[in-house]
Design brief:
This protein has three helices and three strands. Strands 1-2-3 form a three-stranded antiparallel β-sheet. It has helices at residues 3-14, 58-72, 81-86; strands spanning 21-29, 32-41, 44-53. By secondary structure, the protein is α+β, with helices and mostly antiparallel strands. The chain has two domains: 1-56, Nucleotidyltransferase, domain 5 (2-Layer Sandwich); 58-87.
Length: 87
Amino acid sequence: MSEPTADVLAYCFENPKKRSQNILAFDSRRGTFDVTVVNVHDNTFEVGISVGNFYLDGRDFDGGLFQHLTEQYSLLIYQKRRCTIRV
């Protein structure tokens, strides 16, 4: 069982809901990126998909998000180290 799947199950047991829901969870730690989608309905759990990528990690995700935000909003925050650290 992947870590995101275990996290979803733990969350559902700690926070029971009466309605159906789809839950997306991801884990982007050093050296891997894992994604899981779980459908929850009447205390039944069905893993829709659970995949991992060993060539993508949290640093890649952070860098991609940072690049997207600077391009999308025409931000020049990379020019100031203090701003870059805060983001």
